[in-house]
Design the sequence.
């Protein structure tokens, strides 16, 4: 007898875990989102506050956000390092009400990793369930981009029944060899 869960049981367990995660995240005094490259956090604060009333400290591995003279809203270690010089915060007035929010942007050092939480003391999310946003070719480094473009070209060529870039190179080499050796018979030549 197998002890692995049925697809229905697994689906139910995943739904329960997702609901628990959503509940834990909703209880946090802030909202946060992330891409593979950065983390954005919004913290609601009273509308009468000014920037000078806030205590915001963004460090390589720590984050503290709060109102001066009160216990911090966020205070803890970040799960991974950030680029402090590329990370920012602003105090924004919400158009729908008279309240404000602190908006933070943290630039990740490792741009190939999802964060399970903003600070290590907060509840974790299941990073294996994250669906990444579509990336643009312009986001890739030069070498990776040229490799992806070549793969895309070859795929289009195959779909149209045309030779791939490798096959085109071989045909070009054969054509040049034929031009250099007109005395040879290439009628039975096969490309491998």
Sequence:
């Amino acid at each position: 007898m197998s002890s692995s869960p049925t697809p229905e049981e697994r689906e139910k367990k995943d739904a329960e875990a997702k609901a628990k995660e959503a509940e834990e995240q909703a209880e946090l005094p802030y909202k946060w989102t992330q891409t593979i490259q950065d983390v954005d956090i919004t913290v609601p604060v009273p509308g009468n506050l000014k920037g000078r009333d806030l205590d915001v400290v963004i460090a390589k591995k720590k984050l503290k956000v709060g109102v001066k003279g009160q216990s911090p809203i966020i205070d803890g270690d970040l799960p991974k390092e950030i680029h402090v010089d590329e990370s920012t915060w602003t105090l924004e007035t919400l158009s729908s009400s008279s309240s404000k929010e602190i908006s933070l942007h943290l630039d990740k050092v490792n741009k190939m990793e999802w964060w399970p939480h903003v600070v290590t003391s907060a509840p974790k999310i299941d990073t294996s369930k994250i669906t990444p946003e579509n990336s643009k070719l312009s986001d890739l480094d030069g070498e990776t981009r040229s490799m992806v473009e070549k793969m895309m070209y070859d795929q289009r060529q195959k779909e149209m029944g045309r030779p791939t870039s490798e096959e085109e190179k071989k045909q070009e080499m054969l054509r040049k060899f034929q031009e250099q050796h007109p005395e040879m018979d290439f009628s039975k030549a096969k490309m491998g």
In short: The chain has three helices and seven strands. The radius of gyration is 28 Å. The beta strands are 31-34, 38-45, 54-58, 62-67, 74-77, 82-93, 100-108.
